């Protein structure tokens, strides 16, 4: 007996029970789908963070590399950072990904220069880096990603 046949019976209670069971299945599937989407999003954000850290490495390498090994690490950093950037754009909006990627790179390069290479610390510079990091966090919190194939 199909759901339609059961609902054309004069048994209203049975029809209501079928309706409720459909609703439970629908919401269970919907919750599973949303948890899968957020798991993919979190993975993409972590990949984007790793790509940004690789960007800091290769940008510093362009300035400070002095032998073949350091240049090889710089090239590996370039490949890894852009591979991570491209992969993150599959699940997150391109504009957000690029803004976060360049923000992590810029803030990270300023901090790396100060921490590892003796560049001058400056209160204004630190304040601007903090504003940049807050902006990156704001972009992450306001990014809404829908499941593939979901319209609207």
Automatic annotation (TrEMBL):
GO annotations of cellular component type: plasma membrane
Compartments reported by the entry: Cell membrane
Keywords: Cell membrane, Membrane, Transmembrane, Transmembrane helix
InterPro entries: EmrE-like, Small_drug/metabolite_transptr, Small_multidrug_res
Molecular function GO terms recorded: transmembrane transporter activity
Family under the similarity heading: Belongs to the drug/metabolite transporter (DMT) superfamily. Small multidrug resistance (SMR) (TC 2.A.7.1) family.
Designated name of the protein: Paired small multidrug resistance pump
The organism's taxonomic lineage, starting at the top: Bacteria, Bacillati, Bacillota, Bacilli, Bacillales
């Amino acid at each position: 007996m199909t759901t339609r046949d059961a609902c054309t019976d004069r048994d209203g209670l049975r029809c209501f029970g079928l309706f409720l069971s459909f609703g439970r299945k629908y919401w269970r599937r919907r919750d599973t789908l949303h948890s899968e989407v957020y798991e993919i999003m979190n993975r993409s954000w972590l990949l984007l963070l790793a790509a940004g850290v690789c960007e800091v490495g290769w940008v510093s390498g362009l300035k400070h590399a002095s032998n073949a090994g350091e240049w090889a690490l710089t090239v590996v950093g370039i490949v890894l950072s852009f591979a991570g950037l491209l992969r993150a754009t599959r699940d997150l909006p391109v504009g957000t990904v690029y803004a976060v990627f360049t923000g992590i790179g810029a803030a990270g390069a300023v901090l790396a220069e100060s921490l590892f290479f003796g560049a001058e610390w400056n209160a204004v510079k630190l304040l601007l880096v903090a504003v940049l990091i807050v902006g990156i966090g704001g972009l992450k919190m306001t990014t809404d990603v829908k499941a593939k194939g979901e319209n609207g």
